[in-house]
Design brief:
CATH class: Alpha Beta
Largest sheet: 8 strands, mixed
Number of helices: 14
CATH superfamily: Alpha/Beta hydrolase fold, catalytic domain
Structural class: alpha/beta
Distance between the termini: 86 Å
Shape: globular
CATH architecture: 3-Layer(aba) Sandwich
Protein backbone atom coordinates (compact mmCIF):
# COMPACT_ATOMS: atom_id res chain seq x y z
CA UNK A 1 0.00 0.00 0.00
CA UNK A 2 1.11 3.53 -0.73
CA UNK A 3 1.74 6.01 1.99
CA UNK A 4 -1.15 8.18 3.08
CA UNK A 5 -0.89 11.87 2.39
CA UNK A 6 -0.18 13.99 5.40
CA UNK A 7 -2.65 16.63 6.49
CA UNK A 8 -0.26 19.33 5.30
CA UNK A 9 0.04 17.74 1.86
CA UNK A 10 -3.73 17.52 1.55
CA UNK A 11 -4.06 21.18 2.44
CA UNK A 12 -1.38 22.09 -0.09
CA UNK A 13 -3.09 20.08 -2.83
CA UNK A 14 -6.46 21.60 -1.99
CA UNK A 15 -4.90 25.05 -2.10
CA UNK A 16 -3.29 24.34 -5.45
CA UNK A 17 -6.57 23.05 -6.84
CA UNK A 18 -8.36 26.13 -5.57
CA UNK A 19 -5.76 28.41 -7.09
CA UNK A 20 -6.03 26.56 -10.38
CA UNK A 21 -9.80 26.92 -10.41
CA UNK A 22 -9.51 30.62 -9.61
CA UNK A 23 -6.96 31.08 -12.41
CA UNK A 24 -9.20 29.31 -14.92
CA UNK A 25 -12.29 31.18 -13.74
CA UNK A 26 -10.47 34.52 -13.99
CA UNK A 27 -9.42 33.75 -17.55
CA UNK A 28 -12.90 32.63 -18.53
CA UNK A 29 -14.47 35.68 -16.91
CA UNK A 30 -12.20 38.14 -18.66
CA UNK A 31 -12.64 36.34 -21.97
CA UNK A 32 -16.44 36.39 -21.76
CA UNK A 33 -16.39 40.05 -20.75
CA UNK A 34 -14.23 41.25 -23.65
CA UNK A 35 -13.73 38.71 -26.43
CA UNK A 36 -17.15 37.29 -27.28
CA UNK A 37 -19.93 38.45 -29.56
CA UNK A 38 -22.13 38.88 -26.49
CA UNK A 39 -19.65 41.37 -25.01
CA UNK A 40 -19.27 43.20 -28.32
CA UNK A 41 -23.01 43.63 -28.79
CA UNK A 42 -23.80 44.84 -25.28
CA UNK A 43 -25.51 48.20 -25.45
CA UNK A 44 -23.52 49.59 -22.54
CA UNK A 45 -19.77 49.04 -22.61
CA UNK A 46 -18.32 50.45 -19.37
CA UNK A 47 -14.91 48.96 -20.23
CA UNK A 48 -14.61 51.35 -23.18
CA UNK A 49 -13.56 54.96 -22.51
CA UNK A 50 -15.29 57.84 -24.34
CA UNK A 51 -12.65 58.04 -27.07
CA UNK A 52 -13.16 54.36 -27.87
CA UNK A 53 -16.86 54.99 -28.16
CA UNK A 54 -16.02 57.60 -30.80
CA UNK A 55 -14.20 54.91 -32.72
CA UNK A 56 -17.22 52.66 -32.37
CA UNK A 57 -19.64 55.25 -33.67
CA UNK A 58 -17.29 56.78 -36.26
CA UNK A 59 -19.19 60.07 -35.87
CA UNK A 60 -21.02 59.57 -39.15
CA UNK A 61 -22.53 63.04 -39.00
CA UNK A 62 -19.19 64.54 -40.01
CA UNK A 63 -19.41 62.75 -43.35
CA UNK A 64 -22.11 64.52 -45.30
CA UNK A 65 -24.53 62.05 -46.91
CA UNK A 66 -22.51 58.99 -45.84
CA UNK A 67 -25.16 57.33 -43.67
CA UNK A 68 -27.85 58.06 -46.26
CA UNK A 69 -25.61 56.63 -48.97
CA UNK A 70 -25.04 53.45 -46.99
CA UNK A 71 -28.72 53.04 -46.11
CA UNK A 72 -29.74 53.51 -49.74
CA UNK A 73 -27.65 50.58 -50.96
CA UNK A 74 -29.29 47.30 -51.81
CA UNK A 75 -28.73 44.60 -49.22
CA UNK A 76 -25.69 43.11 -50.87
CA UNK A 77 -24.00 40.97 -48.26
CA UNK A 78 -21.58 38.47 -49.74
CA UNK A 79 -20.89 35.06 -48.26
CA UNK A 80 -17.74 33.04 -48.72
CA UNK A 81 -16.47 29.77 -47.31
CA UNK A 82 -13.04 30.61 -45.98
CA UNK A 83 -10.02 28.35 -46.23
CA UNK A 84 -10.54 27.81 -42.51
CA UNK A 85 -13.90 26.22 -43.38
CA UNK A 86 -16.07 28.99 -41.94
CA UNK A 87 -18.73 31.15 -43.57
CA UNK A 88 -17.52 34.75 -43.66
CA UNK A 89 -19.59 37.74 -44.72
CA UNK A 90 -19.05 41.24 -46.04
CA UNK A 91 -21.11 44.15 -47.32
CA UNK A 92 -20.26 44.92 -50.95
CA UNK A 93 -21.06 48.23 -52.62
CA UNK A 94 -20.07 48.42 -56.31
CA UNK A 95 -18.88 51.64 -57.89
CA UNK A 96 -21.30 53.59 -60.09
CA UNK A 97 -19.17 52.75 -63.10
CA UNK A 98 -17.48 49.37 -63.49
CA UNK A 99 -13.89 49.95 -62.46
CA UNK A 100 -11.02 47.82 -61.22
CA UNK A 101 -10.41 49.80 -58.00
CA UNK A 102 -11.36 48.11 -54.74
CA UNK A 103 -11.30 49.19 -51.11
CA UNK A 104 -11.37 46.59 -48.35
CA UNK A 105 -12.56 48.66 -45.39
CA UNK A 106 -12.00 46.98 -42.01
CA UNK A 107 -13.86 48.02 -38.87
CA UNK A 108 -12.62 48.11 -35.29
CA UNK A 109 -13.58 46.51 -31.98
CA UNK A 110 -17.36 46.78 -31.32
CA UNK A 111 -17.78 48.50 -34.68
CA UNK A 112 -19.37 47.38 -37.96
CA UNK A 113 -19.41 48.07 -41.71
CA UNK A 114 -22.13 50.65 -41.14
CA UNK A 115 -19.97 52.51 -38.64
CA UNK A 116 -17.27 52.69 -41.32
CA UNK A 117 -19.63 54.20 -43.88
CA UNK A 118 -17.90 57.60 -43.70
CA UNK A 119 -14.43 56.50 -44.77
CA UNK A 120 -15.94 54.01 -47.23
CA UNK A 121 -17.95 56.80 -48.85
CA UNK A 122 -14.81 58.88 -49.36
CA UNK A 123 -13.32 56.05 -51.43
CA UNK A 124 -16.61 55.36 -53.21
CA UNK A 125 -16.75 58.98 -54.40
CA UNK A 126 -13.38 58.40 -56.02
CA UNK A 127 -14.60 55.44 -58.01
CA UNK A 128 -13.80 52.53 -55.69
CA UNK A 129 -15.84 49.39 -55.28
CA UNK A 130 -16.16 48.90 -51.52
CA UNK A 131 -15.96 45.61 -49.61
CA UNK A 132 -16.61 45.83 -45.86
CA UNK A 133 -16.04 42.53 -43.99
CA UNK A 134 -17.64 41.63 -40.69
CA UNK A 135 -14.83 40.62 -38.34
CA UNK A 136 -15.19 37.66 -35.99
CA UNK A 137 -17.69 38.20 -33.17
CA UNK A 138 -19.24 41.22 -34.89
CA UNK A 139 -22.46 41.75 -36.81
CA UNK A 140 -23.26 39.00 -39.30
CA UNK A 141 -20.17 36.98 -38.49
CA UNK A 142 -20.86 33.34 -37.58
CA UNK A 143 -17.94 33.40 -35.15
CA UNK A 144 -18.92 34.03 -31.54
CA UNK A 145 -15.42 35.06 -30.48
CA UNK A 146 -13.12 38.02 -31.09
CA UNK A 147 -9.44 37.50 -31.97
CA UNK A 148 -8.40 41.16 -32.35
CA UNK A 149 -7.66 40.53 -36.03
CA UNK A 150 -5.54 37.41 -35.53
CA UNK A 151 -7.88 34.96 -37.25
CA UNK A 152 -9.49 37.72 -39.31
CA UNK A 153 -6.28 38.43 -41.22
CA UNK A 154 -6.69 35.09 -42.98
CA UNK A 155 -10.30 35.95 -43.81
CA UNK A 156 -9.12 39.20 -45.40
CA UNK A 157 -6.67 37.20 -47.51
CA UNK A 158 -9.61 35.06 -48.63
CA UNK A 159 -11.56 38.19 -49.59
CA UNK A 160 -8.56 39.48 -51.54
CA UNK A 161 -8.30 36.22 -53.46
CA UNK A 162 -12.07 36.29 -54.04
CA UNK A 163 -11.84 39.72 -55.69
CA UNK A 164 -8.85 38.73 -57.79
CA UNK A 165 -10.62 35.57 -58.96
CA UNK A 166 -13.42 37.64 -60.46
CA UNK A 167 -11.26 40.57 -61.59
CA UNK A 168 -7.67 39.73 -62.43
CA UNK A 169 -7.02 43.45 -63.04
CA UNK A 170 -8.20 44.42 -59.56
CA UNK A 171 -6.18 47.08 -57.73
CA UNK A 172 -6.88 46.71 -54.03
CA UNK A 173 -6.39 49.13 -51.13
CA UNK A 174 -6.62 47.94 -47.52
CA UNK A 175 -7.91 50.44 -44.95
CA UNK A 176 -8.55 49.80 -41.27
CA UNK A 177 -9.15 51.68 -38.03
CA UNK A 178 -8.04 50.53 -34.55
CA UNK A 179 -8.50 46.74 -34.42
CA UNK A 180 -9.21 47.02 -38.15
CA UNK A 181 -5.83 48.71 -38.58
CA UNK A 182 -4.16 45.87 -36.70
CA UNK A 183 -5.98 43.42 -38.95
CA UNK A 184 -4.77 45.36 -41.98
CA UNK A 185 -1.15 45.22 -40.84
CA UNK A 186 -1.33 41.52 -40.04
CA UNK A 187 -2.84 40.88 -43.47
CA UNK A 188 0.14 42.58 -45.13
CA UNK A 189 2.38 40.09 -43.36
CA UNK A 190 0.81 37.28 -45.40
CA UNK A 191 1.70 36.23 -48.95
CA UNK A 192 -0.48 38.59 -50.98
CA UNK A 193 -1.02 38.92 -54.73
CA UNK A 194 0.42 41.93 -56.54
CA UNK A 195 -3.14 43.24 -56.86
CA UNK A 196 -2.84 44.61 -53.31
CA UNK A 197 -1.32 48.02 -53.98
CA UNK A 198 -1.15 49.67 -50.55
CA UNK A 199 -2.54 49.77 -47.02
CA UNK A 200 -3.67 52.45 -44.58
CA UNK A 201 -3.44 51.76 -40.84
CA UNK A 202 -5.22 54.29 -38.63
CA UNK A 203 -4.26 53.89 -34.94
CA UNK A 204 -3.29 50.23 -34.99
CA UNK A 205 -1.68 48.51 -31.99
CA UNK A 206 1.70 46.77 -31.84
CA UNK A 207 0.47 43.50 -30.33
CA UNK A 208 -2.79 42.47 -28.71
CA UNK A 209 -0.79 41.57 -25.61
CA UNK A 210 0.63 45.07 -25.23
CA UNK A 211 -2.78 46.58 -25.94
CA UNK A 212 -4.36 44.40 -23.26
CA UNK A 213 -1.63 45.49 -20.84
CA UNK A 214 -2.61 49.11 -21.49
CA UNK A 215 -6.29 48.33 -20.89
CA UNK A 216 -5.54 46.46 -17.65
CA UNK A 217 -3.84 49.55 -16.31
CA UNK A 218 -5.99 52.36 -17.71
CA UNK A 219 -9.48 50.89 -18.03
CA UNK A 220 -9.96 47.73 -15.95
CA UNK A 221 -7.61 48.88 -13.15
CA UNK A 222 -6.46 45.37 -12.30
CA UNK A 223 -2.93 43.93 -12.25
CA UNK A 224 -1.93 42.01 -15.40
CA UNK A 225 -1.06 39.01 -13.24
CA UNK A 226 -2.97 36.83 -12.77
CA UNK A 227 -5.88 38.21 -14.79
CA UNK A 228 -4.30 38.93 -18.17
CA UNK A 229 -2.15 35.82 -18.02
CA UNK A 230 -5.23 33.75 -17.24
CA UNK A 231 -7.07 35.38 -20.14
CA UNK A 232 -4.24 34.44 -22.49
CA UNK A 233 -4.28 30.81 -21.41
CA UNK A 234 -8.06 30.59 -21.71
CA UNK A 235 -8.07 32.28 -25.16
CA UNK A 236 -5.54 29.77 -26.46
CA UNK A 237 -7.67 26.87 -25.23
CA UNK A 238 -11.01 28.34 -26.31
CA UNK A 239 -10.17 29.87 -29.67
CA UNK A 240 -6.56 29.16 -30.61
CA UNK A 241 -5.93 32.86 -30.06
CA UNK A 242 -2.68 33.86 -28.38
CA UNK A 243 -2.54 37.63 -27.71
CA UNK A 244 1.26 37.48 -27.80
CA UNK A 245 1.17 36.09 -31.35
CA UNK A 246 -1.45 38.60 -32.45
CA UNK A 247 1.35 40.88 -33.59
CA UNK A 248 1.14 43.56 -36.25
CA UNK A 249 4.67 44.41 -35.11
CA UNK A 250 5.98 41.06 -36.35
CA UNK A 251 4.01 41.34 -39.58
CA UNK A 252 5.32 44.77 -40.64
CA UNK A 253 8.82 43.34 -40.40
CA UNK A 254 8.07 41.09 -43.38
CA UNK A 255 5.43 43.13 -45.19
CA UNK A 256 5.99 44.15 -48.81
CA UNK A 257 2.85 46.28 -49.01
CA UNK A 258 3.38 50.07 -49.04
CA UNK A 259 1.74 51.34 -45.87
CA UNK A 260 0.56 54.68 -44.50
CA UNK A 261 0.57 54.77 -40.69
CA UNK A 262 -1.80 57.30 -39.08
CA UNK A 263 -2.15 58.14 -35.38
CA UNK A 264 -3.48 60.94 -33.21
CA UNK A 265 -0.89 62.34 -30.82
CA UNK A 266 -3.41 62.42 -27.93
CA UNK A 267 -4.46 58.79 -28.31
CA UNK A 268 -4.28 56.97 -24.98
CA UNK A 269 -6.51 54.01 -25.86
CA UNK A 270 -4.04 52.69 -28.42
CA UNK A 271 -1.10 54.73 -27.12
CA UNK A 272 0.63 57.11 -29.48
CA UNK A 273 4.02 55.50 -28.82
CA UNK A 274 2.87 52.42 -30.69
CA UNK A 275 3.02 54.41 -33.94
CA UNK A 276 6.78 54.89 -33.68
CA UNK A 277 7.37 51.22 -32.88
CA UNK A 278 5.34 50.04 -35.86
CA UNK A 279 6.72 52.61 -38.26
CA UNK A 280 10.35 52.15 -37.27
CA UNK A 281 10.12 48.37 -37.65
CA UNK A 282 8.25 48.35 -40.96
CA UNK A 283 10.44 47.21 -43.88
CA UNK A 284 7.94 48.14 -46.61
CA UNK A 285 7.66 51.48 -48.39
CA UNK A 286 6.03 53.67 -45.79
CA UNK A 287 4.76 57.07 -44.76
CA UNK A 288 3.20 58.33 -41.58
CA UNK A 289 0.75 61.01 -40.56
CA UNK A 290 0.52 62.39 -37.03
CA UNK A 291 -2.65 64.39 -36.38
CA UNK A 292 -2.17 66.89 -33.59
CA UNK A 293 -4.89 66.96 -30.95
CA UNK A 294 -6.56 63.74 -32.11
CA UNK A 295 -7.53 61.06 -29.59
CA UNK A 296 -8.34 57.49 -30.52
CA UNK A 297 -9.74 57.02 -34.01
CA UNK A 298 -10.80 60.61 -34.59
CA UNK A 299 -7.90 61.92 -36.68
CA UNK A 300 -10.26 62.25 -39.64
CA UNK A 301 -12.60 64.33 -37.49
CA UNK A 302 -9.94 66.65 -36.05
CA UNK A 303 -8.32 67.48 -39.39
CA UNK A 304 -10.33 65.95 -42.25
CA UNK A 305 -8.69 68.03 -44.96
CA UNK A 306 -5.16 66.95 -44.01
CA UNK A 307 -6.30 63.40 -43.35
CA UNK A 308 -7.93 62.71 -46.72
CA UNK A 309 -5.42 64.71 -48.72
CA UNK A 310 -2.65 62.57 -47.22
CA UNK A 311 -4.57 59.32 -47.68
CA UNK A 312 -5.37 59.83 -51.35
CA UNK A 313 -1.98 61.30 -52.21
CA UNK A 314 -0.51 58.10 -50.80
CA UNK A 315 -3.00 55.81 -52.52
CA UNK A 316 -2.62 57.49 -55.90
CA UNK A 317 1.12 56.81 -55.90
CA UNK A 318 0.51 53.07 -56.02
CA UNK A 319 -2.44 52.83 -58.39
CA UNK A 320 -1.86 52.76 -62.14
CA UNK A 321 -2.09 56.33 -63.52
CA UNK A 322 -5.45 55.75 -65.17
CA UNK A 323 -6.89 54.42 -61.92
CA UNK A 324 -5.48 57.28 -59.87
CA UNK A 325 -7.03 59.89 -62.14
CA UNK A 326 -10.54 58.43 -62.04
CA UNK A 327 -13.08 60.09 -59.79
CA UNK A 328 -16.86 60.27 -59.62
CA UNK A 329 -16.90 62.86 -56.84
Amino acid sequence: MGKKLSKGAKIALAGAAGAGLFYFAAGAGFYEAFLTSKAVHKKNKPHLPPEAEKERCRALEKYENASEWYAAQDDNDLELISLRGETIRARYIPAEVNRHKYLICIHGYTSSPYRMAGPAYEFYKRGFNVLMPYLGGHGLSDRKTVSMGYHDRLDIVDWINYLVTFDEDAEIVLYGVSMGAATTLMTTGEDLPDNVKCAISDCGFTTAWEEFMVQCKNVVHLPPFPFLYALRRYAIIRDGFDPRKCSPLDCVQRSKTPTLFIHGDKDEFVPFWMLDVLYDNAVCEKERLVVEGAVHANSDEVNPELYWKTVFSFVDKYLTPAMAEESVA
